[in-house]
Amino acid sequence: MKKITVIGGGVLGSQIAFQIAYCGFDVTIWVRSHESVNRTKTKLLELKKKYTENINIMNTKEGKSFNTWCRGISDYDDFNFKKCIKKVDDAYKNIKFEIDLNLAIKDADLVIESLTEDINIKKDIYTRMSYLLPKKTIVVTNSSTMLPSKLAKYTGRPEMFLALHFANSIWKNNTAEVMKHSKTDDKYFNEVIKFAKEINMIALPMVKEKSGYLLNSMLIPFLFSGLDLLVNGISDVESIDKAWTLGTGSPKGPFQILDTVGLKTAHEIVLMYVKIPSFLVPYNFKGMEKLLKKYIEEGKLGMSSGEGFYKYN
Fold first, then answer.
1. C-beta separation of 228 from 255 below 8 A
2. Which of 9, 122, 309, 313 could form a disulfide with 255 if both were Cys (CB 3.0 to 4.6 A apart)?
3. H or E stretch covering 48
4. Which pTM was predicted?
5. Order of strands, edge to edge, in the sheet holding 138-141?
6. How does pLDDT run across 23-81, given as a tens digit for each residue?
């Protein structure tokens, strides 16, 4: 694989594109409008700064520890400061943008869909792409909640479609969950695993579908538990986070993680559960939805907007 197209320039879409470009691939980001191009360029500039800051830290004695080392940037034994800085600069300069879907995917070896967690939006883009994609192109979804089998038929190539899910802060939390569905050909499953390794990810193969994959099967119930404590009036944001961070030694509590992920994404996930009868679910999803909607309407989207459950400089 040489030419990679990322569909969507959101928080994870921009991170995925930057990491792939950092590893020397030809990357194009497709977005819907010129306004979206400008928003994504701002995200890429922030990523350039973050990669550079992390490389500078990694170049110090203090930075050579497990907690500070960014495995997506470099293996510990192969670290070369000047080479890494150059790769960051090249990645930022070389990423291309396209608002014409046909031009964006016309010569792609791999297309990575990273759109919002709305099944209708995803169905629409896959249906449109199915008439335009070259025969060689493998298609993957970065969806954190939807199974590839639910989307496969819209791609027109179910045997070449699977999930490739990344964690947030991809340059540090460098895992890639590779999940096939019943119609995925093993040839393409193995090719995507190989690609994940080539972009400095630790590939985590999943040979059977599971909603939530590996990470989110554990993370989402954790975040629901934190939100449930808040909306039911049990305690406040800071106390809930401190109970977790001080009690377990984890760097972030549920609300710090929610601010990192983004409250829009959290709201979309909660919406999937709101209509389930309350006696069938263990959490107050209606209360969560109401709270998250209020924050979003106030422009408090998390770290990306400067404020969510916490304020950021």
1. no
2. 309
3. helix 34-58
4. 0.80
5. 96-98, 26-30, 3-7, 110-113, 138-141, 161-166, 175-179, 202-206
6. 999 999 999 999 999 999 999 999 999 999 999 999 999 999 888 999 999 999 999 99
